Amino acid sequence: MTEMTAYQKKMRAESWQRATWACFWLVMLTFAINTTANAPPDMALGPVVTAGMTFWLLQTLPLWLFFPAMKRHHTRALSWFGYILLLYLPFCIVGAFDPPHWSGVLTSLSVLALFFSNAFWVRALKRARAAS
């Protein structure tokens, strides 16, 4: 088995970084879909959007706090980001059992994808830094 070069490790870290960013935006989108999908059908659109955006912001605020760390590639903060994502998982799984089921399942899968891509990004980032 051959050892990866520093360049290959850097490229692997960059690919996991792109996957993590894609999953991050997917989680934000699925939380927005989840808040609007659970709106009462007889409610006007204006209050649904206002209340939904407020709830979405409160729901995603802990994730937004890690946004600067993601941009600066701080491995320690990214590790904590993974722990915070694990706190979101039970909430998402419970949401999968509430109607509409598809939005809860989609949110659960997106949070899981973000958790795993973040974990692999941290691992690849640490290896790339150790190689250079």
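(ticket continues) Second input and output from the same batch:
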Amino acid sequence: MRLADFILRNMESIVAQWEAFAATLVPAAAGMESLALRDHAQQILEAVAKDLRTSQTRDAQHQESLGRAPVPVDAPETAAQTHAILRARGGFNIKQLVAEYRALRASVLRLWMEDCQPNAPDLDDVIRFNEAIDQALAESVGFFSEQVDQARNLFLGMLGHDLRSPLQTIQVTASYLAALNAGERVSGAAARLMRSGARMQSLLDDLCDYNRTRLGFGINVIPASVNLADVFADELDQLRAVHPDRQIELELHGDAQGVWDGQRLQQLLGNLVLNADRYGAPDSPVRVVVTGDEAEVRVEVRNSGPGIERSLLKRIFDPLQRGPDRENGRDGEGSLGLGLYIASEIAKAHHGTIEARSDETETAFTVRLPRST
């Protein structure tokens, strides 16, 4: 019996095995009823059987095995795609989703080969079946990943929005306590609150900007005429107040006037300086050098200390990358690993560039901002 006919005639027993396996995928499957466990298994198998009965060229078969089968414009959602969405919403992880297809492949082929005995199974059917399952798996994995990304981005957006109000309350209260002049203990506590609030604000800003880039919006910039000498001096004054134990130096050379988004470039500089403070030698200053010429303004942030490993340097502007803490070798405390990524996105939004270099004595980040685009 050809495999397509076998699948259609033995649909119930095949789907029953699918259900039995799906029930083992805990904790997501715990408490799920039969209908939910089976989900779109029958429709997926019907699509596979239909595919087996459809004539295909060798190239078409190969493309299908790679998950590249042509999709008609405005084609409806396939059963495999719908299955992936429902599994994602049901709490399954991607390994469990893939395991369902692996178990389905094995059970169908085993049952069919037993049914074929003593005759040998049709080899072309085996190849075509595997290609059809691979196509369904590719569709499921793609939609599952999109669903997970969408849920994560929605969560991050809601988190960023909901945290702003309580954070603002903390910052306002800290400023009020600092203004009371109620003694050294109160002033010290207020200063700690202000430093922590500023750090939380920085993390929150990075998180929200990261979410925008993952949604495809990029970093929003509003260019205006600004003098980076003033913008950066103000940012460094704020950083010195939050990090009084760190010496932060600013050198200015040439004209720093231009058309950029001043607030975004403050954020860029703040992220670079905080990175230098976190990973640089604690007894050496962080140096910021701003050099303006006719074509561009170049911003360098330098710190002394151990160099960055070459393997990390290659991906240092990737999101969620963190280097080892300078004191205990662990990931940087209080860091999401987004600061340098956001800095690079801000530079790109200004049609600029950012690069890093590091040796055994110094690490430097260089940002180039063109005066015209």
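Agent notes: Strands lie at 224-227, 248-254, 257-260, 286-292, 296-304, 353-358, 362-370. The radius of gyration is 29 Å. Closing as not reproducible unless the customer responds.
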